[in-house]
TrEMBL record:
It is found in: Cytoplasm. Keywords: Cytoplasm, GTP-binding, Nucleotide-binding. Required for a late step of 50S ribosomal subunit assembly. Has GTPase activity. This is Ribosome biogenesis GTPase A. It comes from Selenomonas dianae. The keyword GTP-binding applies. Belongs to the TRAFAC class YlqF/YawG GTPase family. MTG1 subfamily.
Amino acid sequence: MMDSDNIIDIPSLQWYPGHMRKAERLVRENLKLVDVVIELLDARIPLSSANPVLREIVGDKPRVIVLNKADLADEAAMRVWVKCFAAQGITAVPVDAVKGRGVKELVQAIVQCAKPKTDKLVQHGAKARAARCMILGIPNVGKSSLINRLSGGSKTKVENRPGVTRAKQWIRIGTQLELLDMPGILWPKFEDRQTALHLAYTGAINDNVYDVASVVLLLLDTLRTKYPSDLKERYRLEGELSNGAELLAAIGRKRGCLRAGGRIDEEKAQQIVLTDFRSGRLGRVMLDSPPSISLIEDAR
């Protein structure tokens, strides 16, 4: 397999200090207003899509993890990740926000997670209220889709509350939840090349900021190693699968991506591979390995 450090050119993406401070301050100031933090992750990359500073900011605040795009993730490996989070005392719920699968289970998990806080308020004489939460996650993991699905496409605004500025709005989710909708989402610092690669594969990083050609070759090499059957089936490939470059050429020929003289139109072939992968046409995958491979076999 190719060495990603030698072939890929993804710059170290970091926030400007002022921007980072503003984003952290926004979350910290609003954290006290919610009972539960919903951490939104891409189910295919539970490690790579996790903000490395989120746990520090959230602290001991109860947390529920949403493994979004679960319909695109390897089911057995995803079950292992759910077990791994459970071992840490954290509930993780696989969700397909587009189709709504897992949303009811998510609402139940959030309400249950908030119950100690809401019950305590009632015990102290307060009126029973819905659980309050906020969603945090990196861009392009499906925050808008999840909010729309939770709210049924109808974002019912709740009145401003004491201590909440007019810029902040609560969205009522049925009778059980209220979601604090805030502008701005934290973006991680990409110091690890493998993390950056996984985010590039799934489209979390804009395609304009890295060398797409190199990323597609590495993606094909990864799929060749982990999911060869799906790759062969999608593109009707036969025989031994070779390296990424030869795979891209074979896919280009199969899909008619040809220029004058029979040369492969590599850019067109690259876009076909990226689109197929990101839409799940190359099968359900898991790019971040769970802690124990043996647990995957137990989950099958």
